[in-house]
Specification:
This protein has 497 residues and is of the alpha/beta class. The chain has helices spanning 2-9, 23-31, 37-55, 63-78, 121-128, 171-178, 195-201, 243-253, 294-309, 324-339, 345-357, 362-368, 371-391, 438-443, 473-482, and strands at 58-61, 90-94, 132-137, 149-150, 154-155, 184-189, 204-207, 235-240, 280-283, 313-316, 397-401, 420-423, 426-429, 447-454, 460-466. Helix 9 links the parallel strand 9 (280-283) and strand 10 (313-316).
C-alpha cells in the first residue's frame, strides 16, 4: 500500500487536526514532534469526558495505564526509538476482545467483573505496532444485533443523530471513531458487524479474508490462551478514518499466530491496480430480497457515475452462474448452525418439532440436523468461493450495498423478529439489515466499506467493496481512490475540536 501512503500522505503535518486526524497523520505528528504522545492522549481523554456521555460508545477506560504507556512512548521517541507505525496512536477495541485486567463481557451481566488474564492476539499486535489502547467499546448481547445495547452498559447512540443506532455489533467502536475518540478501532464480524456500523457512522471498515487476522482471545469471558470456538465465517478487523489506516492496521495484525507462526508468514499482496481507470469493476446495487432505500440508492448511483467519469470499467450483474438466493440460504444455514451449536436439548426438541412441520425452516434445520448437513452446506460455500475466484480472474472488485438504509432509530422491542425498519420507500423487515454483507462473509472474501456521502437527511452511507480472497489490499486501495472522487461525510455536528 506504499503508493497510497505516499499519494495521500502529503501535507500531513500542515493539516494535522488531532481530534479527527487519521492514524497515519497522528503517528507522523508524534514522530516529527508536532505533538507528544502524552499531549495527544490528554487531549483525547478530555474529548472522551466531553463527548462520550452523549453517545456511550466507550464503556471501559484504561486511563492510568494508557498515560503510563504514552510517557514511555515519548521517552522512546526522545531516544530515537520507534515502537512501530502506530507509535503513540490512541485506539479503542471492542468489548468482545480479551484485554488483560478488564472484562470482555459480550453484554452478559455475569461477566461484568470477570477480568481476563490475557490480551487477544489481534490487540497485542496493535500494541506491538505502537498503539495505545484507551478503552473498550460497547456491543449488543452476545454480539447478536445490528444495534449496540446491553444490560451492563446500556445503549450506544450514533453521533450523527443520537436518537439512532450506530449499528452493531461493532457499534460502539464506529461511534467512537466518528465522534473523534481515538484514531482506530478494532472490531469483529459474523453478520455485518464491521460493515454495517461503518456504513451507519460514515467511517471506513474492513472485513478481512477469512483466517487472515487471529481470532484468539475473541470470546466471552476471561481468556487464558486456550483455543476458542472454531469460526468458519467470523473474522476480526479494523475500522478507521481512511483507507490507508485500514491497510496499516491490517498489516500490523495479519498473519499466523501460535504454532502456525513457526511454519509460515504472511504479507499483504500488492493491490492489483493503482488508478481507478484501470480497475475492472462488477456491481449489483439492488435485488428484491434487499431493496435499498432511495436516498441511499441515490448515493450509490452518484458513486457509479463518478467511477464511470474516472474511466473505470463497470459491469452490472452477478458472476456467471451464481444464484444469489442460493448463497443466502447457505449463509443462513451456516450462520444459524454456528449460533445454535450449544443449544439446550429442550430447545433442540422444540426445533425438531418445528422442522417436521416445516422442512424449509432453516433455523430449525441448522440446529438439529446431523453434521452431514453442515458438511454439505460447507461444500456449497466452497463452490461459491470457487465461482468468485473464477470471476476475479477477469474483474478486480465487486461493489454491493453496505445496507438497505441509513442508521435507523433505536428499537429494542422484543421479539426481534417483529421489528420493522421504516425507510423512505416503506417498511423493511429487520433481518434485511445484513442481507448484503452475507455474500462476502459466506465466501470468506475481503470487503471494505467506504463512505460515499450523506443523504438529504444528513446521515452518512457507505458502499461495500468486495475483493479477491487474500488480496485485501485491492479493495482497500480502491476505497482510497474512491474517496478522492466522491463527496466525503465530514464530521458530526457537536463533536468538533
Amino acid at each position: 500500500m506504499s503508493h497510497m501512503n505516499q499519494r495521500q500522505g502529503a501535507g500531513q503535518a500542515r493539516d494535522f487536526r488531532p481530534a479527527f486526524a487519521t492514524a497515519l497523520e497522528t503517528a507522523d505528528a508524534i514522530r516529527t514532534g508536532r505533538i507528544s504522545a502524552v499531549e495527544l492522549l490528554d487531549l483525547t481523554l478530555r474529548r472522551v469526558d466531553v463527548h462520550n456521555p452523549k453517545i456511550n460508545a466507550i464503556v471501559w477506560q484504561f486511563r492510568d495505564q494508557a498515560m503510563a504507556r504514552a510517557r514511555q512512548a515519548d521517552e522512546a521517541m526522545a531516544k530515537g526509538e520507534s515502537w512501530g507505525p502506530l507509535h503513540g496512536v490512541p485506539v479503542t477495541i471492542k468489548d468482545s476482545f480479551a484485554y488483560r485486567g478488564s472484562p470482555n463481557t459480550w453484554g452478559l451481566p455475569p461477566l461484568k467483573d470477570a477480568m481476563s488474564p490475557r490480551t487477544a492476539v489481534a490487540v497485542e499486535r496493535l500494541e506491538a505496532a505502537g498503539a495505545i489502547v484507551i478503552g473498550k467499546t460497547n456491543v449488543p448481547v452476545m454480539l447478536g444485533d445490528w444495534q449496540s445495547y446491553n444490560p451492563i452498559y446500556g445503549a450506544t447512540n450514533n453521533p450523527w443523530d443520537v436518537t439512532r443506532t450506530p449499528g452493531g455489533s461493532t457499534g460502539g467502536g464506529a461511534a467512537a471513531l466518528a465522534a473523534g475518540l481515538g484514531c482506530l478501532t478494532l472490531g469483529s464480524e459474523l453478520s455485518g458487524s464491521i460493515c454495517i456500523p461503518s456504513h451507519f457512522c460514515g467511517v471506513y471498515g474492513h472485513k478481512p479474508s477469512l483466517g487472515l487476522v487471529s481470532t484468539d482471545g475473541h470470546q466471552p469471558g476471561p481468556w487464558d490462551g486456550s483455543a476458542g470456538i472454531p469460526a468458519d465465517l467470523a473474522v476480526t478487523g479494523p475500522l478507521a478514518r481512511s483507507a490507508r489506516d485500514l491497510a496499516l492496521a491490517l498489516e500490523a495484525m495479519g498473519g499466523p499466530s501460535g504454532e502456525d507462526a513457526k511454519a509460515w508468514t504472511w504479507r499483504m499482496p500488492v493491490a492489483r491496480q493503482k488508478r481507478l481507470a484501470d480497475f475492472r469493476i462488477g456491481y449489483v446495487m439492488d435485488e428484491p430480497f434487499g431493496r435499498v432505500a432511495p436516498d441511499v440508492a441515490a448515493l450509490y448511483e452518484n458513486a457509479l457515475t463518478a467511477l464511470g467519469s474516472a474511466g473505470a470499467k463497470l459491469e452490472r450483474g452477478w458472476p456467471e452462474g451464481m444464484d444469489a438466493q442460493a448463497q443466502l440460504r447457505t449463509y443462513q444455514y451456516l450462520l444459524f448452525a454456528f449460533l445454535s451449536f450449544d443449544s439446550a436439548e429442550e430447545q433442540r426438541a422444540k426445533l425438531r418439532a418445528r422442522l417436521e412441520k416445516d422442512p424449509d425452516d432453516v433455523y430449525a434445520a441448522a440446529t438439529v440436523e446431523p453434521h452431514g448437513r453442515w458438511l454439505k452446506e460447507t461444500l456449497r460455500r466452497l463452490s461459491f468461493r470457487a465461482m468468485w475466484r473464477k470471476y476475479f480472474e477477469s474483474h478486480d472488485v465487486f461493489l454491493l450495498p453496505a445496507g438497505i438504509t441509513t442508521a435507523f432509530p433505536h428499537d429494542h422491542s422484543q421479539p426481534v423478529q417483529k421489528r420493522v425498519i421504516e425507510t423512505s420507500a416503506g417498511p423493511r423487515a429487520y433481518f434485511e439489515t445484513a442481507v448484503w454483507t452475507s455474500f462476502a462473509t459466506l465466501a470468506g472474501l475481503p470487503a471494505t466499506v467506504a463512505p460515499v456521502g450523506r443523504t438529504n437527511a444528513g446521515l452518512p452511507a457507505g458502499i461495500q467493496i468486495v475483493g479477491p480472497m487474500w488480496e485485501d489490499g485491492t479493495p482497500i486501495e480502491f476505497a482510497g481512490l474512491l474517496g478522492e472522487i466522491v463527496e466525503g461525510v465530514g464530521e458530526p455536528e457537536g463533536f468538533g475540536e
